[in-house]
Amino acid sequence: MKIYSDPLGVDEPPRGAVLTIGNFDGVHLGHQAILRYVVDRAEGLGTVGATMTLDPHPIKLLRPRMAPRLLSTLAQRLELIDRTGMEVALVVPFTHRLARMPAETFVKDVLVDRLGIREVYIGANFRFGADRGGDVALLEKMGAELGFKAAASPIVEIEGGVVSSTRVRETVADGEMAEAATMLGRHHFIDGCVLEGKRLGRKLGFPTLNIEVENEIEPATGVYVTAVHIPSFGRTFASVTNVGTRPTVYENSILTIETHLLDFMADVYQESVRLFFIKRLRDEVSFPSTVQLMAQIQKDVEASRLYFLQNPVESLGLIVP
Q1: CB-CB contact of 92 with 129 (8 Å)
Q2: Does residue 56 have a cis peptide bond before it, meaning omega lies within 30 degrees of 0?
Q3: Helix or strand or coil: residue 276?
Q4: Cα dihedral sign for 3, 8, 13, 14?
């Protein structure tokens, strides 16, 4: 996939594309449906399929205190979009100047004059332009006048509800990883760097990777069945992860993500890894002693081993970088 990081400036993206516009946080099944539809439409018309995404998320610039914690980083979004077969990604820097641009001006100057689009698809609730004045109806009206086709993206529903980034964020924040996976069409993952910690896990007999996370949203505190992809080994390892503050051994500690790999002992400090959250085992709790903590960790490890005995890592369809 060809990525244009300044498509409204110095970059010269291809003209005549079938385009979809959105934030695409998480690239869930709803996003995947429209992205693949655009790819198919472009192939049928003999042109390129393109996606336009804004960075940063508009709310982060305009109302930062109200901005959601995002499921995916920009790099992850582009990686997942690429997997749909999309040929072109236009990453538009979202600025106050762009926010003040009237929707009609954006359509004429950007979509028509700059990009020469043939077709464009957006979500039914997606808004763009100054005062959120642009929507599907405006695109359909201007498309009839300026020579392009516009329509709303198809809606994907699961268990009686529309799949949306907001809904996925809520399930991840609640630790409902199975429900999140159903809407994402994959297991939720985060990327991060392995830091050298205080080696408490090693002292307890369960060495862990202390991961400094790049993603904004973490699952609810608790213990999870997880898997970790370590690029230098070219493998994904079964693991168990604690998200929390380690209340048994620390007071007023910050949130940490610590992962114990079931069959791995090497040091990988400063390496970037990908951590997949598969199943929540329990809440994080404070134990009266480290002896009881160690006994519970052993139970968590055994529960994770049982899971992977029944569901080998290779069978989970994990998306590795």
Answers
A1: no
A2: yes
A3: strand
A4: positive
Two tokens, residue 26 = 């998480």
Question: Other CB atoms closer than 10 Å to residue 37's CB: what's the count?
Answer: 18
Which contacts (CB < 8 Å, 24+ apart) does range 173-181 have? Answer: 173/69, 173/217, 173/219, 173/220, 174/220, 175/219, 175/220, 175/221, 175/222, 175/224, 175/280, 176/280, 177/219, 177/224, 177/277, 177/278, 177/279, 177/280, 178/279, 180/277, 181/278
Helix (H, G, I), strand (E, B) or coil at 26: coil
Dihedrals phi, psi of 225, to nearest 5 degrees: -75, 125
What does pTM read for this prediction? 0.93
Read off the amino acid at residue 201: G
Report d(CA 242, CA 58) in Å as an integer.
Answer: 33
| Interval 186-198: pLDDT, tens | 999 999 999 976 6
In this predicted structure, what is the pLDDT of residue 246?
66
- Could you give the angle at the alpha carbon of 13 between the alpha carbons of 11 and 14, nearest 5°? 155
The rounded distance, in Å, linking the Cα atoms of 208 and 257 is 9
- Over the chain (321 residues), what is each successive 10-residue block's mean pLDDT? 95 97 96 97 98 94 92 98 98 95 97 98 92 95 97 91 95 97 98 80 70 94 97 96 74 80 87 97 85 90 97 97 90
- Token reading at 255: 């949130």
